[in-house]
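Standup notes
- DV: blocked on the single-chain target, sequence here:
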Amino acid sequence: MRYLRLWITCFAVLALALAGCKKEKSASTGDSGSTATESKPKAKAKEINLFAWSEYVPQDVIDQFTNETGIRVNYETYANNEEMLAKLVAGGTKYDLIQPSEYTIEALIKDNRLAPLDHANIPNLKNIDPALTNLAHDPGSKYSVPWMTGTVCIVVNTDRIKDPIKGFKDVFQDKYKGRLVVLDDNREIVSWALSTLGIEPNNITPETLEKVKPIIKKWVSLVKIFDSDSPKTALLNGDVDMGVVWSGEAAILYEKDKKFRFIVPEEGTHLFIDSLCVPKNAPHKEAAEEFINFCLRPEVSKMISDSFPYTNPNLEACKLLSAEQLENEASYPKGNLKLEIFRDIGDMGAEIDRMMTDIRAG
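- DV (later): unblocked, structure below
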C-alpha cells in the first residue's frame, strides 16, 4: 500500500505562484480605421443543474451565488459515485456540474464524458493546495477542481464501547452485532476487507474478490444500518454505538459531543478527493465555471467547511478557520497515516456490485 501523508494544514500554507493576468480581448481595427463588427454577446445562463453528494453543498452558498449572479442552482443529490454514474450515462437530465470522486473522474475521462475546464474562467484555482492538483486521475487538472478531501474512518461512542478499537478487525466482531452503522458503498466495504488481508484496495481481481467474500459475508450480518447519506444520525440518536463513516461526519459528531472518538483504521483507508467537473455537452458550461470560481473564494470555501467539516483543499480558506476547527482531527488528521487514493478499476466495479448484491440478499 502506498503511504500518503495529509499535508493539508492551515498553519503552514504553501507558497503559490501568482495567477497570470487575464488579457482582455479588444476589437480589431482595419487600415481604414473602422472597427470590426463585434459578435453578439451570448445570453447569460439563468440556471445550472448541479448533481452532487448529499449534505455537501450548503444552501447559504447556493443562495449567495444566486443573489450575486442571478443564476439559479438546481441541486440534485446522490449517495455514491455509482448512482451518479448510472444517472449521468442514462442521460435523462442535462447536468452542468457533477461532484465525482477521484476514481470516478478517471473513468469519466477515459469514457470522454467530461468537458475540459477553461482555467481562465476560474482564477481562484490559485487557492487550491498544489499537492492536490495534477494527480494520476486527472493529469494537468484539465477536468476537475477539488471540492473537499477526507478519509473513511471509524467513530466510536466511548460511553458505550470501552474496548480499544484500532482498525476494521476490531469493529466487525460478534459482540458488536446490531450496534454498527457503515457506509452504503460497495467498493468501500470491499476495500476495508482487502486491507485486513494486506491487499491494496486497488488490487481488485476475481481472485482477490473471492478471498474477501467470506469476510464481507460475516461483516454484513453484523451491520444494523447501511447509510452513506448521514451515518452520523444513527450514532447521534443512540441507535448504534460504532460506525465506519466519512471523516466529515466524524468531525460533526466530535463537534456535538466529545464522547465520539475518531480513528483512522490501522490497516489503512481511502483518501478521497471529491471534485467539481463539467460533463461534456453541459448546456451552461460558463455559468458552471462561474460557480466553481465563486466556491473557491476563501470566504465562500470557509462557509463550506463551517457546514461540512471535511479537509478543505483551499489554502486561503484554511487561514480563515478557527483554532477549534483546525484541531478537530477528523477534519485535519495528524501523523503518518496509511492512505490510498482509489483508481478506476473498469469492469471490476460491476463485479463488486454483483458480489455485494448476492451477499446482502443472502
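- Follow-up: The chain has two domains: 47-147+274-326, 150-271+337-361.
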